[in-house]
From TrEMBL:
<dbReference type="InterPro" id="IPR011009">
    <property type="entry name" value="Kinase-like_dom_sf"/>
</dbReference>
<keyword id="KW-0547">Nucleotide-binding</keyword>
<feature type="compositionally biased region" description="Basic and acidic residues">
    <location>
        <begin position="116"/>
        <end position="127"/>
    </location>
</feature>
<keyword id="KW-0399">Innate immunity</keyword>
<dbReference type="GO" id="GO:0004674">
    <property type="term" value="F:protein serine/threonine kinase activity"/>
</dbReference>
<keyword id="KW-0690">Ribosome biogenesis</keyword>
<keyword id="KW-0391">Immunity</keyword>
<keyword id="KW-0460">Magnesium</keyword>
<dbReference type="GO" id="GO:0005737">
    <property type="term" value="C:cytoplasm"/>
</dbReference>
<dbReference type="GO" id="GO:0051607">
    <property type="term" value="P:defense response to virus"/>
</dbReference>
<feature type="domain" description="RIO kinase">
    <location>
        <begin position="203"/>
        <end position="448"/>
    </location>
</feature>
<protein>
    <recommendedName>
        <fullName>Serine/threonine-protein kinase RIO3</fullName>
        <ecNumber>2.7.11.1</ecNumber>
    </recommendedName>
</protein>
<comment type="subunit">
    <text>Interacts with CASP10. Interacts with IRF3; RIOK3 probably mediates the interaction of TBK1 with IRF3. Associated with 40S pre-ribosomal particles.</text>
</comment>
<keyword id="KW-0067">ATP-binding</keyword>
<keyword id="KW-0479">Metal-binding</keyword>
<comment type="similarity">
    <text>Belongs to the protein kinase superfamily. RIO-type Ser/Thr kinase family.</text>
</comment>
<dbReference type="GO" id="GO:0005524">
    <property type="term" value="F:ATP binding"/>
</dbReference>
């Protein structure tokens, strides 16, 4: 028995046909909407509909669906034309840039997204926490329906998080803000068109924004890391360099049990503008580890190799126990590592910190030891070592920025080492460390080679001769020397 009594059966004075057609139309519409936008319709359907929700949302969605349909057809036509023009020709032209539905919408291009976890596609709104099918929770006077204005408003606010990352929603998400369906739908519509506009402009934008921030593809990558819960929040930019932008982030939860994500992370984004990297070609082209792959790759992939190189080099250093950032994950040209510093404040570079003479001496011996370890245990030369790439944290020196590091037998490896030695020697000598070796002594101490020249010009000539010997060896034997031969183990310097 119904607790509210029997319903009033007042007869409706209109024809059966009218009722039928309207109901049918509504049913069909709801069905369609359900298929296309299940998460929003879940709010608008059902027995608790209030007058103001339905009209705006359904009109809007119909319009969006039509637009989407139109765009798809347009693209299909474009593809047909592309095919017709290209035929069997070896050289083909692409209409890619004229397409309306971009990967942002359809997620179809394999090059755009390699993030495995498709459940966390940021452009598909997560299902809102479900209100039970019957449409209400609670008992008696505490009953809450899914159309309760407050609940609904909060849900709408939370849903803003699903908008594209470049869409500024302010800090409403953090506040107890209640958005009416009408406002939410208007926002959603706007976010949607903004997203598409940015996707359409993406070629242009990628080049114009690379200077100040990151391009949309990188944002997508970062956004997905946050969405997957691997990163908690990305708080801001630590450094903008010529070749990279570094961000700070709070770590999240790891997908696998065995891996722990550090509480604070640094995200190094290698810039995808190519010109900056041109002059660094030599570091990677001649690195035998990457040699075979180099010729086959397009410039975009080469930039990813920088990130890959940094990852491998950091791992080697980590294994040798050298203080350096710990690799968390590599995604294309984005490298996530542990943050050296605390509470969002990065550790100062050695060039920016004033050390007591005692600490300075300590830093020197530690640097010397690290250079030796790097050379012998990691088989690496930093190749950009200076007070700019050494951080002072926890009373010791940390090495960073190793994307350009090479193995000693790299055709220019010893020259790079000599340059590193010059930077280090000069810094500590100027810093008042009386014990600091000069650049030539340091070079021998690190490499274990015994170059006796007592002036810089001769010393460098000998270095180059050694490098040439190595190259000749490669030419004649088809493989590199495993190591430069040295006369026994060099002395280990210590405090
Ligand atoms: P670049 O090639 O731009 O010099 P770096 O790797 O040196 O790139 O990073 C630039 C700056 O970002 C560094 O000087 C340092 O201040 C900061 N940084 C980089 N990685 C980290 C990290 N893991 N922890 C803290 N700060 C970092
Ligand atoms: Mn640097």
């Amino acid at each position: 028995q119904c607790p509210w009594g029997a319903p009033n059966t007042t007869s409706i004075s209109c024809s059966l046909a009218d009722v039928m057609s309207e109901q049918l139309a509504k049913e069909l519409q709801l069905e369609e909407e359900n298929a296309a936008f299940p998460e929003v319709v879940a709010v608008a359907e059902g027995p608790f509909i209030t007058g103001e929700n339905i009209d705006t949302s359904s009109d809007l969605m119909l319009a969006q669906m039509l637009q989407m349909e139109f765009d798809r057809e347009y693209d299909a036509q474009l593809r047909r034309e592309e095919k017709k023009i290209n035929g069997d020709s070896k050289v083909s032209i692409s209409f890619e840039n004229y397409r309306k539905v971009h990967p942002y919408d359809s997620d179809s291009s394999e090059d755009e997204v390699d993030w495995q976890d498709t459940r966390h596609d940021p452009y598909r709104a997560d299902k809102p926490t479900t209100t039970p099918r019957r449409g209400f929770i609670g008992k008696g006077k505490d009953i809450t329906t899914k159309h309760d204005e407050v609940v609904c408003g909060r849900k709408n606010t939370a849903r803003m998080e699903n908008f594209a990352p470049e869409f500024q929603v302010g800090d409403g998400i953090g506040m107890d803000l209640k958005l009416s369906n009408q406002v939410f739908n208007a926002l959603k519509q706007h976010a949607y068109s903004e997203e598409r506009r940015s996707a359409r402009l993406h070629e242009k934008k990628e080049h114009s924004t690379a200077e100040k921030a990151v391009d949309p593809k990188t944002r997508l990558l970062l956004y997905k890391m946050v969405n997957a819960g691997m990163l908690e929040t990305i708080t801001g930019c630590i450094s903008t360099g010529k070749e990279s932008v570094v961000f700070h982030a709070y770590g999240g939860k790891s997908a696998t049990e065995d891996k722990v994500i550090p509480p604070e992370c640094a995200i190094k984004v290698f810039k995808t503008t190519l010109n900056e990297f041109k002059n660094r070609d030599k570091y990677i082209k001649d690195d035998y580890r990457f040699k075979d792959r180099f010729s086959k790759l397009n410039p975009r992939k080469i930039i990813r190799m920088w990130a890959e190189k940094e990852m491998h080099n950091l791992t080697r250093m980590q294994n040798a126990g050298i203080p350096c950032p710990q690799v968390v994950i590599l995604k294309k040209h984005v490298l996530v590592m542990s943050f050296i510093g605390k509470d969002q404040i990065p550790a100062p570079k050695l060039k920016d910190v004033t050390l007591s003479s005692e600490d300075m001496k300590k830093a020197y011996y530690q640097t010397l030891n690290m250079m030796q370890q790097l050379y012998r245990e990691c088989n690496l030369v930093h190749a950009d070592l200076s007070e700019y790439n050494m951080l002072w944290h926890d009373g010791k020196v940390w090495l960073i920025d190793v994307s350009q590091s090479v193995e000693p037998t790299h055709p220019h490896g010893l020259e790079f080492l000599f340059r590193d030695c010059r930077n280090v020697a000069q810094f500590f000598q100027k810093g008042g460390v009386a014990e600091a070796l000069n650049e030539r002594e340091l070079f021998n101490a690190v490499s274990g080679l015994n170059i006796t020249a007592d002036n810089e010009v001769d010393f460098q000539a000998e270095i180059e001769a050694l490098e040439k010997m190595n190259e000749d060896h490669v030419q004649n034997h088809g493989k590199k020397l495993s190591m430069f031969s040295s006369d026994g183990d060099p002395p280990i310097y210590d405090e």
